[in-house]
Amino acid sequence: MCEEKVAEKYSTQVSNSFDRTDEKCSYEIAFRRWLVREIEEGRLRVADAIKTYHFHPKNGFDLIRGWRLKYAPEMVLALEDMTAEERQKIIVLQERNKQLEQQLADARMKNIALDLLIDVAEEKLKISIRKKPGAKQ
């Protein structure tokens, strides 16, 4: 409609699955988000999108730039699958983490046992083993 009036060579139909929603040349939000995702992920260049989907060459760049500003921040980035080597590294790191946690638990237990031993020795032998706070050296 609007572009047909401007120039007959530019189609208002973008694709069979995405249509314009009104006579003001607006496109479905699903199409806008899809196009922004394709551009952001590098599968499509802006110039190629303008050619492929028959946007008017004079305002196509501005239109797509506006869509990118609006829809790119809400895109969820998909992460690539881990390689076997990365999975193996994670398994090794998890095992190392368990070992370190066990060593920490053992060290805490040893610290408690030593404190208890000092407490018992001070009580039984009636001598002060711990250094008093503020004592001169």
Q: Would you kindly provide a written description of the structure presented here, covering whatever features stand out?
A:
With 137 residues, the chain is mainly alpha-helical. It folds into 2 domains: 2-74, no CATH class; 82-137. Helix content is 57%, strand content 0%. It contains 5 helices and no strands. The protein has helices at 2-6, 29-40, 46-52, 60-71, 84-125. The chain is rod-shaped and about 95 Å long. The model is unreliable at 1-13 (pLDDT under 50).
Write the layout of secondary structure elements.
Blueprint: H1 2-6, H2 29-40, H3 46-52, H4 60-71, H5 84-125
Helix pairs in contact: 2-4
Low-confidence stretches: 1-13
**How does the overall form come out from the CA principal axes?**
rod-shaped
- Beta strand %: under 5%
Name the structural class: mainly alpha
Mean pLDDT: 80
Order of helices and strands: HHHHH
Strand segment tally: 0
Radius of gyration: 34 Å
Give the helix level as a range of percent.
55-70%
Q: Write down the domain tally.
A: 2
Number of helices: 5
**Gap between N and C termini:** 93 Å
How can the largest sheet be summarized? none
